[in-house]
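Exercise 7b. Backbone tokens:
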């Protein structure tokens, strides 16, 4: 697994000079003109003495910045907001940024990602570097923080933010929605969804926000999700969040995508025939692998996508479809071998091999150590790293401890 640094993968996003512990975001969004006026307050801890604080923020107009309550100088160009406090900061500090503009996706090697307009509403899908499209942040996956998000928009629309709804206040033609995300969360996993949605409750804390025209089809297509949740909890341990919200937009989307406690599907993924059910379980599995256990850097992405792919195979077998062994055998014959999935590089970060060969790594490990040890080590892996960050090296060491046998050479061949 030849090393590619985090900077190579994130193309200049993020800083190791500090970590953010909490974001407080106040957003006022006008849907028609796609206009966002906002205030962001960040609580952070410096790794040393900082005379400059780099934040990631797209092309908004920044109206003012304060550090520890004092007006600070700043420059803002090329997606970087560099703040220069009156005095260097050490230890705990706060940054407040006031900004406004027209939010739009940010350009990346993987296309345009982040805040995007729908035909009637908006969505946020930020993996891996789209968070600066709507708030100033330390945009690296390993910098996880808690959040409070207040969003005001037209009362005719439903607002969903990754977090627990704590208040909703209607005033005239606008409503303010306030959400709290208490679990440590990477910036790319924060999401905002705005649309004309009905609510469909599945089971307990599972619900779907869906356009009325798709309500019946969604009820069928996601009807087995409560059973998926039960199965995944058996295999991986308890669901790591308080709620799980699926949003089905009224527009088509290229692919579904996960956020913290949430997944977003396009209208084209709902047909009333469960055609895309493997994607339903895939996105649900990311709540364990990717969201609770978040990669410390993007070269470890197989820990997200390989686990979610293997969850598809396990669910297929449990629900009467092809067995995990049959699916593994099929992909073993079809998946390429020209990519080191343990370090795939920027251009091939989302290559199919990362997904399918990632699933094969887990199936090979299962065959090597047996079901009892395999599922036991998955549960202890999840429990031991809940709401934290992980690397491939962490998982290899964990698997060796749980199995009581050396596995490093085998992982080298599987991930190479």
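Sequence design result:
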């Amino acid at each position: 697994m030849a090393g590619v640094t985090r900077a190579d993968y994130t193309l200049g996003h993020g800083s190791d000079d500090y970590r953010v512990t909490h974001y407080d975001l106040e957003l006022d969004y006008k849907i028609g003109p796609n206009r966002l006026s906002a205030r962001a307050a960040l609580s952070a801890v410096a790794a040393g003495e900082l005379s400059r604080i780099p934040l990631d923020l797209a092309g908004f107009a920044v109206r003012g910045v304060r550090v520890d309550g004092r007006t600070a100088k700043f420059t803002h160009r090329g997606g970087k907001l560099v703040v220069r406090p009156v005095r260097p900061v050490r230890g705990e500090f706060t940054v407040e940024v006031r900004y406004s503009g027209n939010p739009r996706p940010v350009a990346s090697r993987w296309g345009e990602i982040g805040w995007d307009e729908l035909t009637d509403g908006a969505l946020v899908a930020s993996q891996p570097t789209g968070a600066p499209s709507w708030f100033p942040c330390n945009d690296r996956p390993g910098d996880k923080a808690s959040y409070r998000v207040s969003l005001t928009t037209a009362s005719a629309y439903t607002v969903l933010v990754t977090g627990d709804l704590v208040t909703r206040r209607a005033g005239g033609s606008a409503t303010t929605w306030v959400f709290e995300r208490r679990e440590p969360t990477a910036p790319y996993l924060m999401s905002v969804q705005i649309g004309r949605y009905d609510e469909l409750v599945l089971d307990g804390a599972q619900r779907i926000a869906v356009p009325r025209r798709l309500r019946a089809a969604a009820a069928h297509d996601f009807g087995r999700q409560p059973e998926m949740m039960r199965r995944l909890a058996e295999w991986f341990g308890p669901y790591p969040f308080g709620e799980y919200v699926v949003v089905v937009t009224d527009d088509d989307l290229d692919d579904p995508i996960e956020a913290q406690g949430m997944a977003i599907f396009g209208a084209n993924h709902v047909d009333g025939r469960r055609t895309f059910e493997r994607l339903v379980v895939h996105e649900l599995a990311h709540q364990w692998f990717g969201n609770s256990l978040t990669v410390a850097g993007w070269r470890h992405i197989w820990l997200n996508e390989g686990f979610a792919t293997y969850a598809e195979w396990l669910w297929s077998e449990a629900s009467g479809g092809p067995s995990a062994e049959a699916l593994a055998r099929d992909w073993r014959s079809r998946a390429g071998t020209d990519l080191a999935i343990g370090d795939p590089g920027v251009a091939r970060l989302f290559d199919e091999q990362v997904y399918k060969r990632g699933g094969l790594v887990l199936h090979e490990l299962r065959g090597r150590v047996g079901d009892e040890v395999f599922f036991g080590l998955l549960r202890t892996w999840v429990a031991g790293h809940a709401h934290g960050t992980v690397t491939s090296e962490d998982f290899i060491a964990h698997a060796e401890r749980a199995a009581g046998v050396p596995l490093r050479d085998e992982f080298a061949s599987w991930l190479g």
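Instructor comment: The first strand starts at residue 18 and ends at 30. The radius of gyration is 21 Å.
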